[in-house]
Each structure stands twice: as structure tokens, then as C-alpha cells.
Amino acid sequence: MELRKKVLMLPYEPGVYMMKDNDGKIIYIGKAKNLRKRVLSYFTHRESNTSNWKTAKLVSKIQDVDFLVTDNEIEAFLLESNLIKQYRPLFNIDLKDQQRYTYLKISDEKFPRLLVARRNRDGKFTGTKGKVFGPFVHGSSKFLTIGLLRKIFKIRICDRLPKKPCLEYFINNCDAPCINNVTENEYIANVLSLENILAGRKSIDDFIEKMKEDMKVASSNLDYERAKAIRDTVNRLENLRTKQKIEYSISSRSEEEYVGIRYDPLQSKAHILILRRYRGVIRDRKKYQFDLIGDNSFSTFLSQYYYSKSSVPRFIYVNEEPDSKQALEKSLERTASHKVNIITVSNRIDIERKQLMDLIVRNLSTYILKGFEPSLLDLKKALKLKALPKIIDCFDVSNLGLSIAVGSCVRFVNAIPEKSFYRKFKIKTVRDQNDFAMINEIVSRRYSKEDKLNLPDLVLIDGGKGQLKSAVEAISKLDLKIQCISIAKEKEEIFVPFSGAPIVIPKSNKSLKILQYLRDEAHRFGLEYNIKLRELK
Which domains are assigned to the chain? Predict the structure, then answer.
């Protein structure tokens, strides 16, 4: 079915939409009050013209759209957070601290084990097959350390069943199915109890009450050893439950957080600084940034951030009111199990809090204004460039012999590799060992269909005057205005167009090291591709 027709069939209801690429992979997840209206806006003429190039790139990759309807916007917030954690789509906000989320797995074996579930970038769980539960958050009422869960439910930890019991049996942490000390049915009963708790079908409180009943039965049957083992398990659980409640109660009452956001329209990014204040003292500081793509917004960030935290403070102070504030508060309350207030700071609220928020915003503004690698400014001055080269593309040719010739292009943003923009080319139009012609070909192919909003500030060519001339000709034929230079490896000389003498940057200068790093990375990337093609021959 044509994509637009499918979008027109979406319901006018709240929910979550999932955008997929040509391979059926989920690349973006968003929420909406009105699914049809929001998703259709991505494909309207007005939206495609006014949105930033990052959103345009997302739209260009969309081949299919799926959706899930929710009862209201609050449910949409929660479902969106869950699905993003599960699939980790390429274009969604990535907080770079996925270690906060724990997934547990009960293995698909005769005597199952409890394991930490691992995921790859595509969101697929790897390793031993089994049922996966989560995500769990450290400190939440649901989460217990995997070691304690194993001890409580007597789950084995061995990779393979040994022929004799190990230390875990003798310290009463395992019932030793390896020596048939427990029947399969008895062992599975413990596993099912664990599943019920991990899946949320039963609470720890229910399990404790059942254990107490079992303890009474064992005691009345004069099975004092079993009664003692059950009592020890109950004590472990009650101590943990009490500790969690005390820690959570103290932290949620005493802490407040300040979340400031500023936008960098040139880079299509949002920058966020978070300060946590505990009993009037600032004790933590975190900084994040995310791409302004689709529905990535302040509201979405807050939902993702607090969904990942061990505790959510009762008061969250912000410098601008997030979209759908009331729905966001309600969704956070479900996660926190207490009331959450998101308050936009102003002089009318509290002068002290306003001063603290002003400090956050001032720091963010300074970072955005000066948020570039300082050596890039040195490079601009040394090469007399018209603009700061925050985005640099580097081209190289790899032709070991005449049989296979390839080209490569790598991109650095703010002196850091941006691998989503790496490109590799099979040389198509050049049959002999002509590096100049090959450079001309790959530069032409790289930018012939590229969105003008997505062009680099500077092009670097691995080579001397000849390679530089070929690249400049290719860029000129495309009617593009991109600054272009080359670097010759022998003496590390820099050539610029229409200049007879090369520019020599001191070897200790970091700006030269950035160019060398780019050149070496382009060479590595191209050579890797060349070798791969040779192996396939």
C-alpha cells in the first residue's frame, strides 16, 4: 500500500507511531494526541519545506508507518518511553546512559537460570534464549539485584549442570538440581513465582505473605529446617523492602531538580543542563544534548530522562514550560508513585530559584556560542577560511593495483567522527590508475544528490595540487560553494586553491593533528573497503 494512503487511514486518536525504513527497521518513535494529523504533517509540502535538514533526512528514509492507539496522552507518554527503550531508534533522543535500564531473562532450559539480558543497537536481545522482563530501574520497587533474586528463589547460576553440588548448595543459595535434590516441578514452581513478580502479576508483598504461610505449614509439620530457610528468605525480603521505602521516601522529599534548555538552530540541537539540589546544596550536575528531529522536544526529553531514573523528585524546575505539561506530570507520577510538579521558574516564585536557573541558562548560552573545538578557530585563521570549519569531509582513493579501485569519504563534526555520514565508492568511470580523475568522480558523486543544508564547511583531499584541482573542478561543476584544501603526506603541507606556495602548520599544532586524523581515517575506511572487495573476488 502506498505510504500516504496508509497514513490517511490512521485513526484520529492519541497513541504512538513507529516509522520504519526499507528494511522494516524502526528508525523513529513518536507520540501524538491525534495520530493521523501528526504523522500526515511529516509529508505535507509545508512541513517538508520548513523543517530542519535532520527531520528531512528522517522523512526521506520512511517507508512504512505502524501505530498503537492509547486511551489518552498520558498513556502515550509511557508507551513511547517503553518502546524507545526497547528499540532504541536511530533518530530518537539517546541519553547515552542505557546502563540505567536493566532487563532480566529467565532462560529457556529444563532448569532455567536468571540472567541479565543484553541488547544490540537494533534492540534485539542476544545470547541464551528465554523470556525477557523489564526494563527495571535501579531502586524501583520492582527491581532487585540479580544475585538476591537468585538466592531468594534458589535459581542455579552454573552454565551447565555439574555432576556434584557446588558451594551455592552448601550455603543454601541453590537447591542443587544437578544431584536431583529438587524435582523439576518444585524447581519450576520457584521459577513461576519469580516470573509472576518480574511480570508484575504479583507483588513482593504477596510473595512474602505466601512464604509466611509456607513457613507455618512447615513448622506445623515439624520440618524446622525448611521453616528456618523460609524465615531467612522472608527476612531478606522485608529488610530490602524497608530499606528501599526509606531511601525512596527521603530522596523524593528532599531533592529538587533544575532543568534548563537552550536551542542551537544552526546545528539543529537542543542543549540541556540539569542541577540536582539536596537540602539546599547542589550535589549533581549533568549535561545532555539531542537532535531536533520530528517530535524530539523538551517534553520528550523529560519523559525519557525521568523514566530512566531511580527516583523522581516531587519538584522539577524548568526555564520553559514543556508541551503537554499536565499529561507529562501524570505519566511521571505513575513512574514515581507520588505527585510530581513541573514548575516554570519566574521572579514571582522565588528569587533564589530564579537566580539558579539564570545561572544554568547562562552556562548553556556560553556553551552554544563557544561550543566548538578551539583548534578549529586556529585552523580557520591559518588557512584564512571564510567560515569556521565545524563540519569537514575528507576524501581518499584506495587503488592497490588496477583490478579494484575505491574511494572513501569521512566526516568530522566539531573534530569528532560522524560515522553516519561516512561514504564508500566503487570507482566506475576511471579504468586506469588516475588518482586525479578518481577524486573528481567521487567528489561529484558525493555531492550531486546531497541536500544543500547538509553540505560540509570544508572539504579536505588526501593529496597534492593535482588532487585538489580535480576536487575543486568537481565542486564548481555542481555549482556549489564549499571551501576545499588538500594535505600532502610527505611534508604535511596544506594546499589551497589559487595559491602557489603551500601552507605549513607546526607539527605540534592541534589543528594540523585534526587534518591528519581526518586523512588517516579516510585512508583506513577506504582500505578496509578495498580489502573486503578483494576477499569477495
Answer: 3-87 (3.40.1440.10), 98-202 (no CATH), 253-369 (3.30.420), 374-536 (3.30.420.340)
